[in-house]
């Protein structure tokens, strides 16, 4: 802040005019509120759906494997048959965890872990490889559960389940996104 601007601020704060002081205080309060409130961990955990009654099990896992790569500077984990396109993708872009499903006509998916579930709204992504896509912010409580999950995960799309084994590649993507990479 230059000297001229600093003097302007000090004139406002030094004046005995109550209205100007009140206005300055109101503007400061509004700026602080605009930065957002920090919710407690209990409030954050309340947003995760309860665990499914029938937990995903490894025996139900679809054929395929997880693989990890860096795509245009963003971490990316995909699941699918070897040497084929991914059927399901978890990626991190610009502070969001992106979920992609091979069925481009899916309007929502439910991702189920042993200790919680999350429904995600999806829409066609319009990319060269058509998939449906949805996202959650990296600070979403479900993303924290995904990053710590040690069991398989199940994705329900249009009532069709796809169970995938636990893997460090998608946990790595979730942790990178949480850490702001």
Report on the architecture of this protein.
Helix 4 (141-148) runs antiparallel to helix 5 (168-178). The two termini are 31 Å apart. The strands form two sheets. The protein has a six-stranded antiparallel β-sheet with strand order 1-2-3-4-8-7, covered by helices on one side. It has a four-stranded antiparallel β-sheet with strand order 6-5-9-10, with helices on one face. The chain has helices at 3-14, 18-34, 41-45, 141-148, 168-178; strands at 65-71, 74-80, 88-93, 96-101, 108-113, 116-121, 123-124, 132-137, 153-157, 160-164. The chain is of the alpha+beta class and 181 residues long. It has five helices and ten strands, in the order αααββββββββαββα. The protein is globular. Strand 9 and strand 10 (160-164) form a beta hairpin. 29% of the residues lie in helices and 31% in strands. Mean pLDDT is 78; it is low at 1-46.
Mean pLDDT over the residues: 78
- Estimate the helix proportion, in percent: 25-40%
Compute the number of strand runs.
10
CA gyration radius, whole angstroms: 23 Å
Span between termini:
31 Å
Strand content: 25-35%
Based on secondary structure, the structural category is alpha+beta
Give a quick account of the main beta sheet: strands, pairing sense, barrel closure: 6 strands, antiparallel
Short overview:
It contains 5 helices and 10 strands. The protein has 181 residues and is α+β, with helices and mostly antiparallel strands. It has a 6-stranded antiparallel β-sheet with strand order 1-2-3-4-8-7, with helices on one face.
């Amino acid at each position: 802040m230059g000297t001229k601007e600093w003097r302007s601020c000090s004139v406002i704060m030094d004046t005995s005019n109550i209205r100007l002081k009140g206005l300055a205080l109101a503007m400061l309060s509004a700026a602080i509120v605009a930065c957002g409130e920090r919710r407690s961990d209990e409030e954050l955990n309340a947003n995760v759906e309860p665990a499914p009654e029938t937990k995903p099990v490894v025996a139900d896992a679809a054929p395929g494997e997880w693989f990890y790569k860096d795509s245009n500077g963003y971490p990316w984990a995909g699941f699918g048959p070897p040497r084929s396109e991914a059927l399901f993708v978890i990626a991190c872009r610009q502070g969001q965890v992106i979920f992609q499903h091979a069925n481009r006509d899916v309007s929502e998916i439910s991702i189920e872990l042993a200790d919680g579930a999350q429904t995600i709204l999806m829409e066609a992504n319009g990319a060269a490889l058509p998939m449906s896509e949805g996202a959650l912010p990296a600070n979403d409580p479900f993303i924290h559960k995904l990053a710590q999950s040690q069991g398989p995960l199940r994705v329900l799309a249009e009532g069709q389940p796809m169970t995938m084994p636990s893997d460090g590649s998608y946990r790595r993507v979730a942790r990178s996104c949480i850490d702001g990479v």
